[in-house]
Amino acid sequence: MLVKALCLLITALTNLVCCRPPASAKTVSSKEDKIQAENPLTDVNLDIISQITVLATTSYLLLMILADYFQDIPAIQQLCILKSWHIAVVILNIASVLLRRWSYKTLDRFFTYQLTIRPGHQLVKTGPYRYLRHPSYTGLLVNFVGTFGFIYYEGLWDVFVAFATRIAAYFVHHKTPMLSTIALLSPFSPHVAGAGFPDITLGLSSGVWLILIFTALFIYLMWARIVVEEEMLRRHFKAEWDTYAKARWRIIPFVF
């Protein structure tokens, strides 16, 4: 259990580091910088992500410590079990942090959390930017999916389903008609379709679906930002940007 806890803490720490901006991002000359407005619906607040990670990790660790008191709930018991894919996530997350910090160092003062054109702005072609247009996003994507998967897949999501199913089963027999009806109609009720919450849908477990949905949502938010960012760079650098972009993949080498 100690090794599993250590892996969880390392995973969470890498996420917090990935969400932390470089010191250069705080060096802003407001009169000279040209800041591109973003859609607030697609602007991911990394501070909130960090807080959620801390809360989820703390909850995970507490459940691991209290696992002996929940012997009848397999979902909590499995939190203490270290699996090979957990170690793979830790390795990938460490690599993602190194890639993101490398991107910070390479861009230096040109790396900002806001989409910004700074005085003397240049297209950086060294470090990870020799191969990718947005290597820091690559690191962020790998880290977010890895962290989310570690915490929720065969983890907190299964615990949530277990407790929600028990609560729904209790309220089905509640004396208050409204609560009883709501519980009966909820997907967690054991009386719905005679089985309750479906663990397998289209051949995939609910945990896998959760990871797929999260990944798709994160890629969408990232793509929405990339579109705005690349248009800003195209307007500023014109033909130089087109030449630069043609020689590099956006996020994933040889794929996209």
From TrEMBL:
EC numbers on record: 2.1.1.100
Reactions that this protein is recorded to catalyse: [protein]-C-terminal S-[(2E,6E)-farnesyl]-L-cysteine + S-adenosyl-L-methionine = [protein]-C-terminal S-[(2E,6E)-farnesyl]-L-cysteine methyl ester + S-adenosyl-L-homocysteine
Major enzyme class: transferase
Subcellular location, record wording: Endoplasmic reticulum membrane; Membrane
Keyword Transmembrane: yes
Membrane-crossing segments per the record: 49-67, 79-99, 150-172, 209-228
Topology relative to the membrane: Multi-pass membrane protein
GO cellular component: endoplasmic reticulum membrane
Signal peptide interval: 1-19
Name of this protein: Protein-S-isoprenylcysteine O-methyltransferase
InterPro entries: ICMT_MeTrfase (IPR007269), Metal_cation-efflux_comp (IPR052527)
Protein source organism: Modicella reniformis
GO biological process: methylation
Family: Belongs to the class VI-like SAM-binding methyltransferase superfamily. Isoprenylcysteine carboxyl methyltransferase family.
Short name of one Pfam family: ICMT
Record-level Gene Ontology MF annotations: protein C-terminal S-isoprenylcysteine carboxyl O-methyltransferase activity
Sorted UniProt keywords: Endoplasmic reticulum, Membrane, Methyltransferase, S-adenosyl-L-methionine, Signal, Transferase, Transmembrane, Transmembrane helix
